Amino acid sequence: MLYLGLTLLSAFLVAVVFLLVRFSREKSTLQRENQRLSTQLKDKVSLLDKLKANQESTLRLVEQTILNERTRIAHELHDDAIQRLIAIRFRLEKLTWYPLRCEVENEINQLRSEIADVVRETRLLIYNEARTQFENESITRLLFDLVDKFKPMILPKVSLSQRYPEREFSIPPAIKKDLYYIVQELVHNSIKHSAATELEIETIWGGDLTIRITDNGIGFLSSDKGGVGSRTINFRAENIGATVERMKKIGGAQVQIILQREEYF
Questions:
Q1: What CA–CA distance (Å, rounded) separates 200 from 186?
Q2: CA distance from start to end of the chain
Q3: How far apart, in whole angstroms, are the C-alpha atoms of residue 45 and residue 86?
Q4: Pairing state of beta strands 209-215 and 242-249?
Q5: CA atoms of 155 and 216, how far apart (whole Å)
Q6: Do β-strands 242-249 and 157-163 pair in parallel, antiparallel, or remain unpaired?
Q7: ∠ CA 37-39-43, rounded to 5°
Q8: Phi/psi at 229 (nearest 5 deg)?
């Protein structure tokens, strides 16, 4: 009986020693694996830090390049185009020194004011600053101001009408700017190419905003589709999530801009 007990005890001790040795080996293996993984993790973190530093350096380089190019363009515009515009404004001012019909003098003064606006807005664009009008004025007010610029023209007669103005909703300045420039480009295209005598801008407020530009001219020309102006219109429309639909009609043409309210509001 004693022999059997000693045998069992010995077997138990052997098993314990075996398990301790195995545990020690597995512990060493786990420690080595943990150390290997820790080293890999440190290497990955170091690599990510280097990539982040490279990206930040590239971003700073790009920003500096943009700033340098903007500064160069600013200097070129200031020393050439803007100075020529200012010279034209002064020449127009000199014309007012001579006896002129009242309407001619008014037109000259309006042209001087337009040139001053162009100079100011060009400087704002150079430094990527928004016109204060887009910050402070509604799109309706901006379109009325646009129509007022064409009032001295004999033809076409440009007008603005509104449907459901009480439903007008606020539009962010950046969206307002692109929308305004789309309408302005379409109006200019009609004046230059359509030979129209009447041009109407109509705003329709509802769940969305629809702006229709309608004239009684000769319709669209095939050459109108691929110009810089058309590409600019499409770019601005895509930028704000608007759609531009061009439609021929009897005795003229119509362009419809639809800005979906839920896109931004």
A1: 11
A2: 92
A3: 57
A4: unpaired
A5: 12
A6: unpaired
A7: 115
A8: -60, -45
Alpha carbon 121 to its chain centroid, in Å, reads 17
Best CA proximity match to 186, nearest among 140, 236, 138, 113: 236
Question: For the residues 144-171, what does the mean pLDDT come to?
Answer: 90
Q: Which position has the token pair 């300045």? A: 173
pLDDT in tens, 164-223: 999 999 999 989 999 999 999 999 888 888 889 999 999 999 989 999 999 998 876 544
| Phi-psi category of residue 25: left, alpha or beta, with phi > 0 → left and psi -120 to 50 → alpha | alpha
* Tokens (6 digits) for 121: 């807005």
45's tokens: 């973190």
Q: How far apart are CA 155 and CA 108, in angstroms?
A: 18
* Bridge partners for 163 per DSSP: 204
Pick left, alpha or beta for residue 72 (phi over 0 → left; psi -120 to 50 → alpha; otherwise beta): alpha
What is the DSSP-derived secondary structure letter of residue 81?
Answer: I
Helix H or strand E segment including 214: strand 209-215
The highest-level CATH class for domain 138-263 is alpha beta
Per domain, the residue ranges of the chain are: 1-129, 138-263
